[in-house]
Amino acid sequence: MNVLGLQLPTILLASFYGPKVAGWFMLSQRMIDGPIGLLSQASAKVYLGEAASIFREKPHNLKKLFLKIVNKLSLLALLPTLILVLLGAQIFGLFFGAVWEESGKYVQIMAPMFFLKFVMIPLSQTLYVLEKLGWQVFWDAMRLILVAGGLYLTYQAKWSPLLAILVYSVIMSVMYIMLFFINLHALAVPKAKTGG
After folding, report:
1. How far from chain centre, in Å, is Cα 3?
2. How many whole angstroms separate alpha carbon 138 and alpha carbon 166?
3. How confident is the model at residue 195 (pLDDT cuts 50, 70, 90)?
4. Cα separation of 56 and 187, whole Å?
5. Burial track 91-123 (b if 16+ CB lie within 10 A, e otherwise)
6. Whole-angstrom Cα distance, residue 194 to residue 168?
7. CA–CA separation, 118 vs 39, rounded Å?
8. pTM for this structure?
9. Higher-confidence position of 108 and 53
10. Neighbouring C-alpha atoms within 13 Å toward the C-beta of 188
11. Three-state SS for 81?
């Protein structure tokens, strides 16, 4: 479900709007998701180790760690996000040529979503630490349904590709905010496993 949720937007955009739009979307995703993936993976490993240790020793301190990392990652992502919002099209046009400026426009629209993704992906490890995998599956299912439904309705309404990207970005932003609150709720009263 997770993999399908990540691949589905490209498949639907290609089906609804053609390969050119899908190509612009894929470039925008790859250029931003690459650095996000590397940094998120490193952050996730550090967070997972620290969170698991705190969960065993002082489970009530896990929420404090979670919020501390939210603040750190938010501050780290703020400036790059502002640059993408303001100059995404120009940056892509400069590095890839004028024909790829459309990808940069997609990045400008999706910048808030990328910001939330950067913050939340490492912290989603909290659900693994708390053994709330069912909650993660619920989130993955909701994302899949809402993204598919949103893009389908956008196409049926004959909205432009830019509006379709905006709808996708809004849905995904809402989903990452939802993931934040799911994790926060899971942290309300964490209890470490005890032997016996």
Report:
1. 13
2. 24
3. very low
4. 14
5. bbbeeeeeebbbbbbbbbbbbbbbbbbbbbbbb
6. 43
7. 8
8. 0.87
9. 108
10. 5
11. helix
Q: Which of 137, 167, 153, 132 is nearest to 55 (CA)?
A: 132
Residue 81's contacts (CB-CB under 8 Å, 6 or more residues apart) are: 111, 112, 114, 115
DSSP secondary structure letter of residue 177: H
CB 106 within 8 A of CB 165: yes
Question: Under a CB-based contact definition with an 8 Å cutoff, are residues 107 and 117 in contact?
Answer: no
| 97 Cβ neighbours under 8 A, 6+ residues apart | none
Which pLDDT tens digit goes with each residue over 59-98?
788 889 899 989 999 999 899 899 989 988 888 888 888 8
